[in-house]
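A favour, since you know our structure tokens better than I do. Go ahead and set the record down below.
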Amino acid sequence: MKTEMLLQIQSWVDGRLSAGESAEVERFVAANPDAQALAGELRMTKLAFAGNEPTVTMPESREFFWSKVQREIARQEAAGVTAESAGFFAPGWWRKLLVPVTSVAGLALVAVLVTVATRTEDGSDQIESQLEGVSTVTYGVPGMKVIWIDRNEPMSDEPTSIDNIETK
């Protein structure tokens, strides 16, 4: 079943469809066993929720609450209080800049600390090898740096793999 049809069945169970749509979905559910099972599950879920929903009582009526809100809006409009009138001290504009500015400053600080931490006494970058038998040699001139990585293995008398090819 398509998602659209699943949503139509749910709306049908909730009683939110027009008469024409409701009749169409009802015919579909009657003809489709999967749709019947889904409709049954939705009805049971609806009953479980309806029987177990807590009742919340408000200390004041709806009308009284909304009349308080309406009076407060009217009072603020009469006093001329707007968000723009706060000017420089408006709480929103500098908070919008606070996160990006502190993020960039933090990244710059981390970059500086990493650069300083990896420098040696002579000012060259430090490269550390975690492999045994490997050494590095660094040579730098303005605009170029060469890093030579060397395995500290003695030269063997064995021929290299290209020399192992036998000719017939």
Notes: The radius of gyration is 38 Å. The longest helix spans residues 93-117. The helical segments are 3-14, 19-31, 33-52, 62-79, 93-117.
